[in-house]
Amino acid sequence: MTRRTVLKGTATAAALLAAPAVLRAQAGGKIRLGAPFHRTGIGASYGRWYERVAVAALKLINEGGGINGMEVEMIVEDDGTDPKRGTEVIEKFATEHKVDAVFGHLFSHVVAAAGPRAGELKMPYLLCSEGHQLAAGGLNRYTFQPCITDVKSQVSSMAPWVAQNLGKKVAMIFPDYAFGHDHRDYFSAAMKAQGGEVTTLIPVPPTESSFTRYFPQIPSDIDVLYHVMVGPAVLTFVKELGDHFGSERPQIFGFIDSLEAVDLTTPQLDYLNGTYFWEGMPRYAQADQSEFDKFYREKVGVDASGASTSDAKDVSTYAHMFSVWETLFVIKQAMEAANYKGPEQKKDFIVALESLDKLAAGNEHPQGEKVFNGKTHQVFGRQSISKVEDAKLTVVHTTSIEDGMYPDEVDYTKQEL
Question: Are residues 163 and 59 in the same domain?
Fold first, then answer.
């Protein structure tokens, strides 16, 4: 064996070691993304629209050349909006489908179960959820919430407006699981900071179908009833609320979660006229609608009222589903920054995600400008407060990004990869 043969063999071995990353793109390989959507269970309406938005975003990405010259393929699994099934799906993505990353979980009780498993499997896991568990340090370095704000940020930024415009004495009715508990804890603290008080806390099972037994717990001297409902029973909730209070009602402030995928022109919802809601992204196109919102609506097939352009009765989950669109473009941005070619570069992808800072408003981020915190893996953005008027939602206040910021509670960059 000559010296020339040895050198040739060494070079060949080095090339073979590098080959998986390089040849994947050259051979027409694909970026594979796992999408655990809520196709069934109490989150089914969200899951259907999350999937529809993801298909539209990936079509745009692939038409533009994919990611680093590779087509992006989405593999969908139904998690049933169930924590146990959500964890099983994460394992399936890692061991069977061998995806590059996972995105799309919404309901916080599913995230709480699936997030730790994603970290154990060293699977990049990008949430389209709103729980504070991640930013509080309860998950891991492989988990990110890059395009939708968390409940702590949302309620902190809106409490001053509620206190100044609706009142300071509040009763709260909320779903009895992690998402509702975040509202309970952080809105109570935010109102206290405004000189207000949440005097009454009323937890309700998220699968509840009737609410009459809860309403008597609401004191008669409150200024504001704050409601955060989930699930399919919103029509019953509003009807029973009207039966209980009649015209002598307090100010009412709610989160749009209970009305996602629900047509506001439904007669049973008339009682909500004059009440207020949080929206992550305004369902109805506003008078000052941005070109980015117009572009996004066109691509996902949503009209100016927030319904499907092919079926006016099919109302979208507009206040949340933008997070799927924006998350896919963040994946693209970070993978291109890392020159990502395959699973052996997952650590590079994580570091690239942590290097994100400002996300400019645009077609990739139609909800608006955001600031990402690489230490806590949490994004911060603006919130909308909308008023129900003539069966439509009109924005009456928009918070600043700074309104929702809070001190870091964790630094994930110090954890090992």
Answer: no
271 shares a domain with 231: yes
Q: How far apart are CA 91 and CA 98, in angstroms?
A: 9
Phi, psi angle pair for 251, to nearest 5°: -65, 145
Percentage of the chain with pLDDT > 70? 93
Backbone angles phi, psi at 143, to 5 degrees: -110, 135
CA distances from 331 to 243, 365, 403 (A): 48, 13, 27
Residue showing tokens 């997030």: 115
pLDDT digits (tens, 9 = 90+) for 288-317: 999 999 999 999 999 999 999 999 999 999
Compute the distance between CA of residue 339 and CA of residue 343 in angstroms, rounded to an integer.
12
CA–CA distance, 379 with 287 (Å, rounded to integer)? 27
Q: Are residues 31 and 129 in the same domain?
A: yes
Domain count, the chain: 2
Question: What local confidence, expressed as pLDDT, does residue 350 receive?
Answer: 98
pTM of model > 0.70? yes
Whole-angstrom distance, CA of residue 278 vs CA of residue 7: 66
pLDDT tens-digit readout, 44-63:
999 999 999 999 999 999 99
CA-CA distance, 107 to 269, in Å (whole number)?
25
Query: Within a domain: residue 237?
Result: yes
